[in-house]
Automatic annotation (TrEMBL):
Residues 17-151, 166-297 form the EamA domain. Keywords: Membrane, Transmembrane, Transmembrane helix. It is found in: Membrane. It comes from Celeribacter persicus. Pfam families: EamA. The lineage of its organism: Bacteria, Pseudomonadati, Pseudomonadota, Alphaproteobacteria, Rhodobacterales. This is Drug/metabolite transporter (DMT)-like permease.
């Protein structure tokens, strides 16, 4: 038994605290976006959030000596970094903010749970050595049944009709972008995570800026509540949590980091219902259970050593 669990990174109580904080803060992000949207238009919210995050991340990067951490002959192409910024933050933040005008924060958070399900079939075709197994196919199929429930007949017959349906599709597009970004990051040469995040946030802000100007004109001064929500999104949800994510991966490993995927949708649903008094239709709860169940089945070979370690430490 000891041989099975010893190769894992050192998972300490601090690891659990950090991954718990990540899950809670990222899960609360969708609720905070709803609050920010009461005083800031969706596209400008994306631009401001990314600009603030890029500035904070640049400060972290400066402390690190603006180190890129790449070999001189193996630097990522600038267009690859711009593309990573577009699909990691620029495009998904525009879609997410626009979509959350017409859907609940709980729905938006549940949609993000589909990211690992999209990554698996995408990696099968785009990453060498990544192949779907029977277990992962079953997990993906179960999860996508949950996704179908999210945008099924209930969406077409709810209040808001077309706008709500397209809001739901916008949120699922965000999940697709995040999955594609996951593959893109894998294919980049090794690079300092702080440098990569800073560059992606800055390029994302530059990408959203023309859309904000063209669609919404010059921004006005937001009310205090929306402004505080914006600062939280830029400084805490985006910049600080990306740094915490790096600490978790370096100390406890990327597999342990996947536990965040199970927390985010749960917190988004709980906080949306508790703080914003959002409804909890049975369809949403069932969809969430199917998606998380599908993710767990598809990721079980990676999660099993962590479960063994937990029981060995009890």
């Amino acid at each position: 038994m000891k041989t099975d669990i010893s190769p894992l990174p050192n998972i300490t109580p601090a690891s659990w605290i950090m991954v718990g904080i990540l899950g809670f803060v990222w899960g609360s992000t969708f609720m905070v976006i709803e609050i920010a949207l009461t005083g800031i238009s969706p596209f400008w919210l994306a631009t401001f959030r990314l600009t603030i995050a890029a500035l904070v991340m640049a400060a972290f990067w400066g402390v690190d000596g603006f180190r890129m951490g790449t070999e001189p002959d193996n630097k990522p192409h600038p267009m690859a970094l711009i593309w990573a910024g577009a699909i990691s933050s620029g495009v998904p933040f525009l879609f997410l903010n626009w979509g959350q005008q017409y859907v609940t924060s709980g729905f938006a958070g549940t949609s993000m749970a589909a990211v690992p399900l999209v990554v698996l079939p995408m990696a099968h075709f785009m990453v060498a050595g990544e192949r779907l197994t029977i277990r992962s196919v079953i997990g993906v199929a179960l999860g996508f049944l949950g996704v179908f429930l999210l945008v099924g007949q209930d969406a077409l017959h709810s209040s808001g009709a077309d706008l709500e349906f397209w809001g739901r599709m916008a949120c699922l597009t965000v999940a697709f972008c995040y999955a594609l970004n996951s593959i893109t990051i894998r294919r980049l040469p090794p690079i300092n995570p702080t440098a990569l995040t800073t560059i992606m946030m800055a390029s994302g802000a530059l990408i959203t800026l023309p859309f904000s100007l063209a669609a919404e004109g010059l921004p006005g001064l937001p009310p205090l509540k929306a402004f505080v929500a914006l600062i939280f999104l830029g400084v805490v949800s985006t910049a600080a949590m990306n740094q915490l994510r790096v600490l978790v991966i370096r100390s406890a490993g990327p597999t342990f980091m996947t536990l965040v995927n199970y927390q985010v949708p749960l917190w988004s649903v709980i906080l949306g219902a508790w703080i914003l008094s959002e409804p909890l239709p049975p369809t949403l709860i069932l969809a969430l259970a199917l998606i998380l169940g599908g993710v767990m089945i598809s990721q079980w070979p990676s999660l099993r050593p962590i479960v063994r370690r937990i029981f060995a430490q009890l």
